[in-house]
Amino acid sequence: MKQPILFIKKEPVLTAASVLALISVFFIPPDLAYLNYIDFKTLLCLFCLMTSLKGIEREGLLNAVSIKLSSGMKDLKPLILLLVFTSFFASMFMTNDVALIALVPITLSVLSLCGQERHTALVVVLQTIAANIGSSFTPIGNPQNLYLFTRYEFSLPSFLKVTFPFVLFGGILLLLVCFFIPRYSISQETTTVPVIRKKQVIAYGAMFILAVAAVLLLIPYQAAAIIILAATAILDRRTLYQVDYFLLLTFAAIFIFVGNLARIDWVFSDRFRLNQKGYHGNSCFIKPVYQQCSCSRHAVRFYR
Fold it and tell me: Which of 75, 108, 121, 141 is least surrounded by CB atoms within 10 angstroms?
């Protein structure tokens, strides 16, 4: 009994998505149309990104870079600025969760070495905010962006044009918050930079470039997934064991739920009834939900 409870606590989003998908199955029994629900392109691109970045993380490259960046710091404020905005910019290219998983342990270690453990909560909260703001800038910053970018076939410039103002505004606010942090003198102990296996890092770096190319439609995503899977199995199959497959399952469950929702007639009849009552002029909520559901059966246009 404890195992299911622990799993629910560990994976609440997957659990909720799975329950919703299961409920929707009672309204729309499984059939061949289910295969059209799943956006395999998004899932495979996400797998490619997570696998390559997990390999880079396992090789210790992120640790080495962060230790070198923080060496020589004499004041707490610039150190916090460095840690926070490293999370901000790193999340644009390695997703927000990967950036935090890689940088938060480094932050804990660096603050401990500097004798500033009392500021740990503040720095980690700021890093979390920074990662979520920064990751919203690029298509590969988070899974939601990746889905929107691939699903609606944005061009890269048009996507960045939409996200840039929000990210810039969030970055400025974050910078202002950091400036209110008081100055403290710090002394950092010498830290040994971990040994980096260059060949492995170069290989995973090449895989990451391959994954980005697949996201940008420069190469077939199926080919990229096969190459990255085979190369990782040869280099270090343990990397494959640490990929977040639960995130992929979460997306699959959401696709099933939304796909079934789009085929339930009364959902759309209620929507039309609301429009007839005069809500069509204020459809800022109804229209996005309707369009999101309709994506799964390609029955509605996406208005940019």
Answer: 121
